[in-house]
Amino acid sequence: MTYDPNNVFARILKGEIPCKKVYEDAFALAFHDIAPKAPVHVLVIPKGAYVSWNDFSEKAPAEEIAGFVRAVGAVARQLGLEEPGYRMLINTGRDGGQEVPHLHVHLFGGRVLGRMIPDGV
Ligand code: 5GP
What we know:
Blueprint: H1 8-13, E1 21-24, E2 28-32, E3 40-46, H2 53-59, H3 62-78, E4 87-89, H4 93-96, E5 105-109
Antiparallel strand pairs: 1-2, 2-3, 3-5, 4-5
């Protein structure tokens, strides 16, 4: 899949759509999800143009991968989630339920989050 430079997260990165920012550095931007599924629901996105985890893990330079991974951890610590704990989720592709075609890590916290995934195979 080719990257769509007009996807909603690309537009947030360009400042064309507002967001409730919680963190920004050279590699990542983090902001509150518009439709939170937990008391804390933050999205962390890389600044580079990557469609998905698949795209990012295959094509991103090591410096960008390291920077992004460190940024996700920094966001979780900044939000005070390290001790009570939290969950990270990356939906990927059709079966993964990915809706926005710019890589994003969901960070959930603020309550006991329950089972990892609904039952059923
Ligand atoms: P996905 O299903 O692709 O993993 O998750 C996309 C997420 O982006 C959803 O949780 C959705 O609520 C969130 N989202 C979609 N559009 C916007 C937006 O314009 N602003 C923010 N902050 N979140 C958005």
